Amino acid sequence: MRYKYIILGAGHAGLTIANYLKENNENNFILIEKENECGGLCRSKYVDDAYIDIGGGHFLDADNDEVYKFLFKYMPEIEWSKFDRISKIELNGEYIDHPIEANIWQLSQELQVEYLKSIAIAGCNIKNPKPEKFVEWIYWKLGEKIASDYMIPYNQKMFGDDLNDLGTYWLEKLPSVSFDETLLSCLNKRAYGKEPGHTRFYYPKNFGYGELWNRMGKNIINNLALNKKVSRLNVLSKKIETDSREKYEAEYIISTIPWICYDEIVGVPDEIINSIKKLKFSSTIIEYINHNIETDAHWIYYPNLDKKYHRILLRSNFLANSKGYWTETNKNRFDYTTKNFYFENEYAYPLNTIEKPKIMNDLLNYMKKHNIYGLGRWGEHNHYNSDKVVKLAIDLGKKLLKK
């Protein structure tokens, strides 16, 4: 079977570019998905009389009007509730608002003094050279107290203990913690500094976040092939083969699935094949807990290593007529003896290892020469939010339609 476009993976990246092509009168494409439903990490399941998002916490929090305009065609704005984000951090039994650097003033005075002293002598504030290793960089950037109480244990819980395998290039978005602003916040009991990203978000009034992507899948139902796992990619001939021996070829291939999940990639230099094997990722378990917590938070971060999960999503605070919450836990920390509903995501977070930028640059540039494009969280091996992926998919769609 031959098409102009083959799209691999019906998550938010694949669904967006597929629908964009259709909107622009291009129907010569096939979207291939290994699961029996669309949505990828943004899928939702009906559990205990309401929805949970089995890929973790996903919300629509775009700052781009083009993204809103595109998505609201499939699920109109009237079907969404809009929230001012409330997220909190649990620190030694106390809860403060996120981000930590702006809300230390909510802690006891004794702890405020400890944090202030630590921030004052943080490496970046006293002009020490910038370290290259992840753990040292966190201490340099945020100070010993924030690093040891929050950032280091939280990242260990999410990504594993080998934090120095991670690069520091992706951490530049972390703010430098200003001693002056932190002191002012403690004195005046309010947050100072730049407002963090994603301070407002949309969530469906009556569904999980997966409803949006279900509708986008239905819109391209005649171009959708479910329950088909891609096993082989031939780069030179632009052919793919599934586990069931079905074969497809195209002028262009858009891959939104993890590069490491192909059984075989043909027509690629050995050094690139070997580098793909070095890409790392973490897996997560989403577990539903039928218990209400007295808080107005939408989600809470837990750096305490004694708790296996690293965050919880309190669905009753953003989804009407629901109760309980769900946890997100690294697969390696999960207690499989639980009797609760849980769902495992093998591919949850791409890890920003030291080698990743070069691996992906070489891989994507080589593939692009053969009209094969990596797109989204897994196609680009980058921890993008869904709104960012939508924008990337729209932009790639525009580019391909001009060819």
Any key phrases for this structure?
403 residues, alpha/beta, FAD/NAD(P)-binding domain, 2 domains, 11 helices, 19 strands
Output the structural class: alpha/beta
Q: Order of SSEs, N→C? A: EHEEEHEEEHHHHEHEEEEEHEEEEEHEHH
Rg estimate, integer Å? 22 Å
Shape: globular
| Name of the CATH first level of the largest domain | Alpha Beta
- Say what the CATH topology of the largest domain is: FAD/NAD(P)-binding domain
The number of E-state strands comes to: 19
Q: How many domains comprise the coordinates?
A: 2
Q: How are the elements arranged and paired?
A:
Blueprint: E1 2-8, H1 12-23, E2 29-32, E3 44-47, E4 50-53, H2 65-71, E5 80-84, E6 87-91, E7 94-97, H3 109-120, H4 134-142, H5 144-159, H6 179-188, E8 200-204, H7 210-219, E9 224-225, E10 230-234, E11 239-242, E12 247-255, E13 264-266, H8 270-276, E14 281-289, E15 299-301, E16 311-313, E17 325-330, E18 342-350, H9 356-369, E19 372-374, H10 376-379, H11 386-401
Parallel strand pairs: 1-2, 1-12, 2-9, 6-15, 10-13, 12-19
Antiparallel strand pairs: 3-4, 5-8, 6-7, 10-11, 11-12, 14-17, 14-18, 15-16, 16-17
Helix pairs in contact: 1-7, 1-11, 3-6, 4-5
Account of the protein in words:
This protein is of the alpha/beta class and 403 residues long. The chain has 2 domains: 2-86 and 203-401, FAD/NAD(P)-binding domain (3-Layer(bba) Sandwich); 99-188, no CATH class. Helices cover 29% and strands 23% of the residues. It has helices at residues 12-23, 65-71, 109-120, 134-142, 144-159, 179-188, 210-219, 270-276, 356-369, 376-379, 386-401, and strands at 2-8, 29-32, 44-47, 50-53, 80-84, 87-91, 94-97, 200-204, 224-225, 230-234, 239-242, 247-255, 264-266, 281-289, 299-301, 311-313, 325-330, 342-350, 372-374. Strands 1, 2, 9, 10, 11, 12, 13 and 19 form an 8-stranded mixed sheet that branches. The mean pLDDT is 95.
